[in-house]
Write a structure and sequence with these properties.
five-stranded mixed β-sheet; 9 helices; 279 residues; Alpha-Beta Plaits
């Protein structure tokens, strides 16, 4: 800090006082209170006498005012700079924390949630839906004949395809609690809390149609359309505390297997778990 004096005569003295205040939070807090309130401020006797011994204040019993206007100017500027630095550091810390969360939870290729976050979120929503006695739906989708797509067009094109599919699915989700995650290589998962089977099926239909609308060429696909398509499995249940979300995943996985067995490019609802609201 630079002393606001013509020749900087008091700079070393002021810096030493500043360091003392920085090392003692009680003194620093009390002196800040005096700087903010230009009237006499009443402090605890010990704190008041410590500030007085440093020459920072004038005492009237336990009431204090700054002993020199120079101190008010110098230290007020120092406090403002300190608070600004603190705010900047806090903002940087928040940005770094967000970057760290992204590294941990976001799939680097598709920029959607990864398998780790999927597991965490599904478990959390299972518990929440069990408390609320509300339905929880899961959509699993797999890009049809994706190995053939990679073999035909190359891995860079394959990566681009997965990115387009991920973005398309994400844009099909209406509510912030509905999330998409990359479940495996070319497999994606959509978690739909507070969603019954009927609505989950409508979301799956929208996803299937939107992906076909992309018209990503796939000449070697076993689906006769000649474009990228997806096979989808849907499961839904009202969670309870006696079971765990693996049953929901297993049911959707069996449903997606049926979609593939029946020719791909279709949606299968699990017959093992299902819930439709009566509304």
């Amino acid at each position: 800090l630079e002393a606001p004096t013509h020749a900087g005569i008091y700079s070393d003295h002021l810096r030493s006082l500043w360091e003392i205040l920085q090392q003692n939070s009680e003194l620093s807090s009390a002196f800040k209170k005096i700087l903010i309130d230009k009237n006499n401020v009443e402090l605890e006797a010990l704190i008041a006498y410590k500030l007085d011994s440093l020459g920072l204040v004038k005492l009237n019993f336990n009431e204090c005012i700054t002993s020199r206007e120079l101190y008010r100017i110098y230290f007020q500027k120092g406090i403002e700079r300190t608070e600004l630095d603190y705010q900047e550091r806090l903002e940087e810390l928040e940005k770094d924390n967000q970057k760290l969360q992204n590294l941990v939870n976001i799939d680097s290729l598709t920029q959607i949630y990864n398998r780790r976050y999927f597991d965490q979120y599904l478990n959390a929503e299972w518990q929440r839906m069990a408390r609320e006695k509300s339905p929880l739906s899961l959509i699993l989708l797999d890009v049809d004949c994706f190995k053939l797509y990679n073999d035909t067009y190359g891995h860079q094109a394959g990566d681009n395809c997965l990115q387009q599919v991920a973005l398309t699915v994400r844009n099909c989700l209406k509510y912030p609690t509905h999330i998409i995650a990359r479940y495996g290589g070319e497999e994606f998962a959509v978690i739909l809390p507070q969603t019954d089977q009927k609505y989950a099926y409508s979301v799956a239909e929208k996803i299937s149609n939107k992906i076909k609308f992309l018209a990503i060429k796939h000449i070697n696909s076993q689906v006769k359309l000649g474009i990228v398509t997806v096979s989808i499995g849907v499961s839904c249940t009202v969670p309870n505390y006696q079971e765990n979300p693996s049953i929901l995943v297993r049911a959707a996985d069996e449903a997606i297997y049926q979609s593939k067995a029946q020719g791909r490019d279709r949606i299968t609802i699990s017959p093992f778990l299902n819930f439709n609201s009566s509304k």
